[in-house]
TrEMBL record:
The keyword Lipid metabolism does not apply. GO terms for biological process: fatty acid beta-oxidation using acyl-CoA dehydrogenase; fatty-acyl-CoA biosynthetic process. Gene3D superfamilies: Acyl-CoA dehydrogenase/oxidase, N-terminal domain, Butyryl-CoA Dehydrogenase, subunit A, domain 2, Butyryl-CoA Dehydrogenase, subunit A, domain 3. This is Acyl-CoA dehydrogenase. Belongs to the acyl-CoA dehydrogenase family. Its cofactor is FAD. Residues 24-136 form the Acyl-CoA dehydrogenase/oxidase N-terminal domain. Residues 140-231 form the Acyl-CoA oxidase/dehydrogenase middle domain. Residues 244-390 form the Acyl-CoA dehydrogenase/oxidase C-terminal domain. The keyword Transit peptide applies.
Amino acid sequence: MAASPKLPAFDPADPLGIDDLLEPEDLAVRDTVRGWAADRVLPYVADWYEKGELPGIRELARELGSIGALGMSLEGYGCAGASAVQYGLACLELEAADSGIRSLVSVQGSLAMYAIHRFGSEEQKEAWLPRMAAGEVIGCFGLTEPDHGSDPANMRTRAKRDAGGDWVLNGRKMWITNGSVAGVAVVWAQTEEGIRGFVVPTDSAGFSAPEIKHKWSLRASVTSELVMDDVRLPADAVLPEVTGLRGPLSCLSHARYGIVWGSMGAARSSFEAAVEYAKSREQFGRPIGGFQLTQAKLADMAVELHKGILLAHHLGRRMDAGRLRPEQVSFGKLNNVREAIDICRTARTILGANGISLEYPVMRHATNLESVLTYEGTVEMHQLVLGKALTGLDAFR
């Protein structure tokens, strides 16, 4: 009888052996982004969060461009052409540092750059994408409005042609990541032809982007309102290859995919903090990690964390194969963000009073994820997307 093969050692950091599914190139991307975040974000992010600012965002963007993290899954125009799995791994590592940093990258690459890359003219692509990929120009994505979040079909922003063929844009957009520091905005507006996207240089007359303050979530991130008062754009400012909600919704689906991975980064950071704390914090003469109730919490957290990473990996492989459906992205965002929040809250209970301190990452991640839960599709919207897919019945209206 042949001897049984020797089993690999159990790895508490990778209990399911998910790393075995990754190629050397995947691991290299992950390690590069993890190293950058450890050097350029983790030593400072608690102070940024406490002050409610992201200083040096333009320098950070250029550094992210230099490691190929901006528009990394796009082809050509200075983009890295990475796989969907590699992009997901990057999102996980960035959000393990802070959701605001991952949001900067997601909005740049998966919303603004993706819209131009997929729906723009060759002239628009050449004009903007190489500089955006390098981090020389920051982009933002204007869809959500003060009165229309989950119902973008009824947006009030309008673009009209004048007699000379130019477009005149009027409206307001709200909760726009990168808005105040962006050099270009992709803005969606109602036209006589339907909803269209416009590439708007932010130095255009009539365009302004006041920053939104007094946030208790995503504090290490630039969030803004976009104000457009008779912004005059040339005829070729419109994205020529799409009309209707298919344009912005396809961009959102691409960005939501990054959240499926990124939310697990926030969860991993909180879980790791809880494990280390449980091994060192003593009560009743022994580490609290040796008590059954604490071990039960850690086991449940590990199960949901690594199930979520495995789900993200599966969706990434489907995206790389051209088989990922929007409903499957909704599945991933709904599950992973919801579970990430629960992991953070459970980690906070293990840390006790220390869990609310910025000396540890847990409360910062928990409050950030409250925004991640809502943006790019609320829980209710993703539940209804799945409900419609499961029943064939539309409950939206």
